[in-house]
Design goal:
There is one protein chain. The chain starts with a helix and ends with a helix. The protein has one domain. With 201 residues, it is mostly helical. It has nine helices and no strands. Helix 1 packs parallel to helix 7 (139-168). It is globular, with a radius of gyration of 18 Å. The chain has helices at 3-18, 22-58, 64-67, 69-91, 109-115, 120-133, 139-168, 175-191, 194-200.
């Protein structure tokens, strides 16, 4: 990969990773609701899960959508349904300090890693990267570089959003403030679906 292409890849990775999307919205909400320590498995699940997905798409898994277009439609439908359910869960969450018997909990490592496979923004990023930054002649080298770049950038982004959420905890101690914040995060999560909904309708 040339120096110019590498710079372009890093810039693309920073923009796509740091801007709001399903992952960052949920990490922000998790940081507020559960704190940074309890959110760490969620962070690692996002970072490692997305990197594995990036590897798979770069090696050709994404081409399955060209062979079976209905599969992509099914994936989008599942993505929308799951994100709407997550938005409902976030929007109906309560205070930052759970009461005994409260079922609220942060996303686990496995849940966060598996979520990447139905994350519409993640698929758009992976497919774009595979199309623009991977060449058949240098497949292994290109995939190694882009995986390293996205691993580092994703870790930086996920950690930053979770820490930002954690920093807001002292200001959201009362029930009313927490309700307002969680409803705002639920709306933001639903809004992150706008690109895929525009494409569908």
């Amino acid at each position: 990969m040339s120096h110019d292409l590498l710079i372009s890849l890093i810039a693309f990775a920073l923009v796509t990773a740091m801007t709001p999307g399903p992952n960052n919205t949920m990490l922000l909400a998790s940081g507020v609701n559960f704190g940074f320590v309890r959110t760490q498995p969620h962070i690692l699940g996002v970072v490692i899960g997305f990197t594995i997905m990036m590897l798979a798409v770069a090696f050709g898994v994404g081409r399955i959508f060209s062979v079976f277009p209905p599969l992509y439609s099914l994936l989008r439908t599942i993505s929308i349904a799951y994100l709407l359910w997550l938005a409902w869960r976030i929007g109906t969450s309560g205070a930052t300090d759970p009461v005994p018997g409260d079922e609220a909990r942060p996303m686990t490592f496995t849940e966060a890693a598996l979520f990447q496979w139905i994350n519409p923004k993640g698929w758009m990023v992976c497919l774009s990267v595979a199309a623009n930054y991977v060449t058949p002649d240098n497949l292994w080298a290109d995939v190694a570089v882009l995986s390293a770049v996205f691993l580092i950038v994703s870790l930086l982004s996920a950690t930053s959003w979770a820490l930002f959420g954690t920093s807001l905890r002292p200001f959201l101690k009362d029930e009313r403030s927490m309700r307002i914040f969680n409803i705002a995060m639920a709306i933001a999560l639903v809004a992150s679906l706008s690109p895929i909904l525009r494409e569908m309708f």
